[in-house]
Write a structure and sequence with these properties.
This protein is an alpha+beta fold. The chain has one domain: RelE-like (YaeB-like fold), CATH 3.30.2310. It is built from three helices and five strands; from the N terminus they run βααβαβββ. The radius of gyration is 12 Å and the shape is globular.
């Protein structure tokens, strides 16, 4: 499936607060993510608590040990909505 991507303002605010090393890790993960957000190298998994709360399937990808990006899909559009530690799940 060919995806298009959108990012929330919240995602960008938090992205710009990351350290230089974390930003580089995000950029490396993006290379994989843009081809397939469900690539097994990203450890993509469903976040049940957020999915239940928002009544849509919310996913997370592992960027670093405690750095995650949270997204959902609407058709072929992937919306990245948050980035940060496991605290983004709450």
């Amino acid at each position: 499936m060919k995806y298009s991507f959108q990012a929330s303002e919240n995602f960008w605010k938090k992205f710009y607060r990351l350290s230089s090393q974390q930003k580089e890790s995000v950029r490396l993960a993006w290379i994989i993510f843009k081809d397939n957000p469900f690539d097994s190298r990203l450890g993509t998994h469903r976040i049940n608590s957020l999915s239940a709360h928002y009544k849509k399937t919310i996913y997370s990808v592992v960027i670093e040990a405690d750095l995650r990006a949270v997204f959902y899909c609407e058709g072929n559009v992937v919306w990245t909505v948050d980035i940060g530690t496991h605290a983004v799940y709450k």
